[in-house]
Prior knowledge:
Largest sheet: none
Strand content: under 5%
Helix content: over 70%
Oligomer: single chain
Amino acid sequence: DKALRIKPNxxxxxxxxxVVVARQGDTKRATDLYQRAVTANPKxxxxxxxxxxxxxxxxGDAKQAVEHLRSTVALRRDDAVAHHLLGVELxxxxxxxxxxxxxxxxxxxxxxxAQARVDLxxxxxxxxxxxxxxxxxxxxxxxxxxLPDAHYHAGVALARIGKLEESAERFRTVLKxxxxxxxxxxxxxxVI
Length: 192
């Protein structure tokens, strides 16, 4: 706050204060502070990323969030989190080729991110290649065997391959981890 009283458009201070107020639960003010930070200095990748994260968390403008994630990766090509989030958002919008490029970058930049591997597998699955998707789900499970999302999507891919018993086992695993998971129960009912 002191730095902002002296220099109201100091982008690093705006971004930092945004982080603080977001942690305190004032997401509307955090969004405003991040927006002011990127307006004051469009070359601060972290402010773009923080604004995108806040917009997505608040159910804000996903299109605007995607643009800020694009700015983040343009400024910092090594930002695995931004590549991951951008890939997920692009896949949701149906831009699978671009989503794949960003998800591959996310996995290459952070090979230990199990959720990024799941999301890459999901995007690969959208291209009609369940065997290739399974490679990513298996890699995710090697990193984190307790990741229900990886078991669920592996079950979906196995069903598409025609391995129904293995698929059913994956859905049962999800139900053991997350009793009452409706999607897993519906999927299990379909393959047995």
